[in-house]
């Protein structure tokens, strides 16, 4: 008998659970690292800090789920109801986890959550760098919204939607 030694490290399975208020600081670190991964100017990242700060209060009132590997949070999403629609307010994956399936799994979980709570339309105002991901996940771009930043008055965010039934 011959033995086979794998040189590829085993990826721990992704577990998804409801976020707890005590996860807020770690989720903030993930959101900020994920945004910085795209190489935005430091001034923009500073401007975005309040939006990328996840507070215990937010986790307690929003629908927030966290993906973990080996018990450690590596990504999360947040849903908020908006009248007759849903908004995907946050969807962040640690940069070192990109391409390992966590985004796909968390997005599918978000769709299942919408389907369970109240089926309908999910709206996503996407970072331009994440637009391809949402398109691959089946969301359809329906337009864009202005999101000007320092020195870039023409900055726009693609808007996607997906019907969840």
Notable traits:
29% helix; 165 residues; alpha+beta; globular
Silhouette: globular
Order of helices and strands: EHHHEEEHEHEE
* Share of residues in strands: 25-35%
Rg, Å, rounded: 17 Å
Give start-end ranges of low-pLDDT stretches: none
Helix content: 25-40%
Taking the alpha carbons of the first and last residues, their distance comes to 51 Å
How many DSSP E strands? 7
- Mean of residue pLDDT? 93
What's the main sheet like?
Answer: 7 strands, mixed
Structural class assignment: alpha+beta
Summed up, the helix count is: 5
Strand order of the largest sheet: 1-2-3-4-5-7-6
SSE blueprint and pairings:
Layout: E1 14-18, H1 24-36, H2 42-48, H3 56-61, E2 63-69, E3 72-82, E4 85-93, H4 102-117, E5 120-125, H5 131-136, E6 140-146, E7 156-164
Parallel strand pairs: 4-5
Antiparallel strand pairs: 1-2, 2-3, 3-4, 5-7, 6-7
Describe this structure in words.
The protein has 165 residues and is an alpha+beta fold. It is built from five helices and seven strands, in the order E-H-H-H-E-E-E-H-E-H-E-E. It has a seven-stranded mixed β-sheet with strand order 1-2-3-4-5-7-6. The termini are far apart.
């Amino acid at each position: 008998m011959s033995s086979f030694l794998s040189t590829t490290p085993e990826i721990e399975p992704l577990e998804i659970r409801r976020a707890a208020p005590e996860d807020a600081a770690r989720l903030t670190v993930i959101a900020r690292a994920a945004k910085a991964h795209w190489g935005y100017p430091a001034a923009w990242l500073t401007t975005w800090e309040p939006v990328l700060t996840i507070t215990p209060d937010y986790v307690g009132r929003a629908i927030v789920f966290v993906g973990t590997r080996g018990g450690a949070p590596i990504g999360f999403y947040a849903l908020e109801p908006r009248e007759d629609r849903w908004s995907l307010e946050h969807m962040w994956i640690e940069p070192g986890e990109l391409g390992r399936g966590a985004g796909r799994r968390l997005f599918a979980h978000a769709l299942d959550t919408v389907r369970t709570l109240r089926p309908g339309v999910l709206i996503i105002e996407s970072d331009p760098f994440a637009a391809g991901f949402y398109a691959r996940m089946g969301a359809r771009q329906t337009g864009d919204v202005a999101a000007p930043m320092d020195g870039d008055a023409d900055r726009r965010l693609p808007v996607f939607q997906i019907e969840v039934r």
